[in-house]
Amino acid sequence: MPVSAAPGPPAAALGARVRAVLETAEPRAKVMRARALRRDWRAGRLAHDLSVGVPDRPGRPARPELLPPSAMSKRGKLGSARGRVAMLHALAHIELNALDLALDIVGRLGAGLPPAFADDWLSVAADEALHFALLDRRLRALSTFYGALPAHDGLWEAAASTADNLLARLVIVPTVLEARGLDVTPATVRAFAAAGDPRSAAILQRIYLDEIRHVGFGMKWFGTLCAARGLAPADTWRELVRSRFRGSLKPPFNDSARRQAGLPRDYYAALAS
Ligand SMILES: [Fe+2]
Ligand SMILES: [Fe+2]
Q: 167 CA distance to ligand 1 centroid (A)?
């Protein structure tokens, strides 16, 4: 066969790369690999092949120690330096989980969907990687680090309880849990600014704006799937929250940020605790 007719090396599979990032335990390596994965996908270097599957639980470093939610001691008030460090540490942990969740939805539930689905969630994974990196760097500037405090081991529960159902995953993770972040973050930003820590406040504000986009991706794909399956979106959303979400929807809601993300008040207002 003439050399010119020889096929090039087969492109690496997207699914294998997703799996490799999920299995990475060391946070800074996970961050770098997630960002490289998004770059390689965008550059067309990966085949849209998701046949490899994902691990049940992502790789985690030896520290932080993971405790059941009931064993976590209360964080101090944000007026104290200790309370603020505990908050930044808890948020770093949430971002690391969010990174894995964004990859898990592609690797576990994204087969059969168009490449645009992977585009969106790989960009979310890259954002979450950046959010973790910003918080990790901020913790170091405050003479501590991610892993110095125990962290909550309940965050992967939402992934496990929606592992069989893409619609449920889209409802519970981006449009319930991440939307909850939109409700509470503005007050946290103000508390850091009032406590004389404008650098942390700026990081949290940056995260807040990105999270509006993430909730928006959730609503976009939820709407696309409902339309394709002939489901009524508002009723389906509420039914899935009732059947798949253990917590309650706590007001007050950030209606304007939720609306910007495409999540109308009539979806959630009737379920408020
Ligand atoms: Fe984030
Ligand atoms: Fe997010």
A: 21
